[in-house]
Amino acid sequence: MPKKLVIVESPAKAKTLEKFLGKEFSVKACGGHVRDLPPNRIGVNVEKDFAPAYQPIKGKKKIIDILKADSKKASAIFLAPDPDREGEAIAWHLSELLGSEEKTKRIEFNEITKEAVQSAIKHPRKIDMHRVDAQQARRILDRLVGYKLSPLLWKKVRKGLSAGRVQSVAVRLISDREAAIDAFKPEEYWTIMSSLTKGDEAQSFPAKLVLKKDKKFRIHNEKEAKKIVGDLDKAEFKVSKVTRKERKRNPAPPFITSSLQQDASRKLGFTAKKTMMLAQKLYEGVELPQEGAVGLITYMRTDSFRIAKEALAEARSFIAERFGEKYFPKEARHYKKKKQAQDAHEAIRPTSVRRTPDVVAGALSDDELKLYTLIWNRFVATQMASAILDMTSVDISAGEYTLRATGSIIKFDGFITLYVESEEERQKKEDDEEEGEGRILPELFENDVLKKLAIIPEQHFTEPPPRFTEASLVKELEQRGIGRPSTYAPIMSTIIDRGYVEKDGRALKPTDLGRMINGLLVEHFPVIMDFKFTAHMEDDLDEIVAGNLGWVETLKEFYDPFKKNLDKAQVEMKKIKKEIKTDKICPKCGKHLIIRSGRFGDFLACSGYPKCKHTENLKKEEHKEVEGQTCDVCGRPLVVKHSRFGTFLACSGYPKCKFTKPILKKIGVKCPMDGGDIVLRRTKTKRIFYSCGNYPKCKFSLWDKPLNEKCPKCGSLLVEKKTKTKSQKKCSDKTCDYTAEL
């Protein structure tokens, strides 16, 4: 009897589905996209309504042939790629290749559990062409931008550069922030704290100067600060107002794609790419000892806070059993839909709260378990009772000034017993009354006279805006409506891999190349680089999904002005190619030869190009020899070489010896182990670290930037430790607790 064929994207998902569906089904994996635009040409006919020339992806012929053979034998074909636009497009491409429309149906499931999969089989549908059209529109938009802008950059700057529609806007955000940091001029200001007591010095508490003549004010310099300190020294400190109130703190909503990436970055140190890779594995299914293969979380590309009724009921039942009635709210919590949310899928949650992190720990890697625990804790916390805090605020008069002391204690921990929000999330919701959390103030009443123990003026300087991290950039993109859940992680990877952005710790910093390319694109393509326009294009894609807009119409609206700007830029964009001039003369026209970079490395070319197209191979003597540095393999001198990937050191014996190494930047600090120069290096993921230049003979290394100072306590190197608000000196020896302000 012919089997029913189910086609999914990944082998892991296929394995999980096989267990649920039984012997009458055959489950095969297509490995993602099977057709795409050609890799070596634009593949879009602009003149014929942007008709795409799809072709099978290289390396997919074997799997396509297998799927075609299986589909001919099958009694029914269920296409089950991921439940999003990309998955819908994959399903459509499969149906086009298999050519069995009459027996082909589309199914989707938000979670890979037995109930969800069997329900999907019972309720198949036709392929949603509106979703397919939206995906096609995005793909063609990106192809047009990439294949039209990239050659322009090759011509004007250098070979190997590329530009992308959304990625270039992300680079602009990072470059604009860096420009704001460069232009920032710190302003001096002072704060004044006092240490007060009602009687017993052991019960002293801090109070901050907040008002002058009942109005907020700023202390600009030391002179003003000293005058105020003098006034306070003479003043009587008396309690003028005591406010006590009970405050509820509600849990944050369940994770959506952007908040998961942000929290995984803040709490676990994961990149957006790593977070989504791990989440995909948890979604597709893992092998549990008692259950076999099962998906642990719902679909991880979503912008909705919606939760299924069954999941809410299970969570509430679990909370009552595990934590007790007082942690169990009377009604289930529901969270408001975000303005721009497509709301196509549920929030990210465990497929069953009964699969606690302890239950699944043995089946997961360390990183998978960390992410699953984060998702599980956050979801269960959303349905727990609010935390209750006792808040106390005390205003203290001192002449014409008012100081304020705050304190708060957790009266009932509620959801906090399971999940504590990151500081950044809480700052969005709470005011400064919670500055004193955990501080217990003594019993104070109006007109109480207080004893002054100390008045402490402190100088500060305003800080420039912080550089973006992956977490804060995802948040910024989401707030501006740029990109969608499925695009955040690829954006991060692309801008770093292209060399337009680098990581300094967790901070994202534009490279010189990134800033230069950004400047050119902003000048000549202001519409494409406009944040509102990019967000508008995302809205148009949503309208295509809704059936309110045609994809060809959308592409025409974009392409016509883009083409005009492109033609104009071909003429007006300045050529800023950095070419290395040599003393050699062209034998054909007498002009100087220059070093150029091509697909196959460096070569000599006539500076009279394109009129004169003479080229020569680049001999070793044409490269600058590096004094004193020799090849680690054969001992020959090293030379500086230039390629489309940048400048590097190579053996002068090339091609017999192919040894290369990067040019390392010294930071002016000596290695404490062997006296070598400490240099800046990067990991494979572009993360910066510092190590001895004599590696591998000396393996001294640090993540934080070393300072040319030694710790006064233990003699180890001091390092620069940056936080969100300040920079500190810290001892590099983890067993030493020395810190000081920079």
Number of helices: 18
The largest sheet is: 6 strands, antiparallel, barrel
Low-pLDDT parts are 428-433, 620-625
- Strand percentage lies at 25-35%
Question: Your description of this structure?
Answer:
The strands form ten sheets. A six-stranded antiparallel beta barrel has the order 9-10-15-14-11-16. A four-stranded parallel β-sheet has the order 2-1-7-8, with helices on both faces. It has a four-stranded antiparallel β-sheet with strand order 19-20-21-22, with no helix packed on it. It is an alpha+beta fold. It has 18 helices and 34 strands. It starts with a strand and ends with a strand. The chain folds into six domains: 124 residues, Rossmann fold (3-Layer(aba) Sandwich), CATH 3.40.50.140; 154 residues, Topoisomerase I, domain 2 (Orthogonal Bundle); 138 residues, Topoisomerase I, domain 3 (Distorted Sandwich); 126 residues, Topoisomerase I, domain 4 (Orthogonal Bundle); 83 residues, no CATH class; 72 residues, no CATH class.
List keywords for this structure.
742 residues; alpha+beta; Rossmann fold; Topoisomerase I, domain 2; Topoisomerase I, domain 3; 6 domains; 6-stranded antiparallel barrel; 4-stranded parallel β-sheet; 34 strands; 33% helix
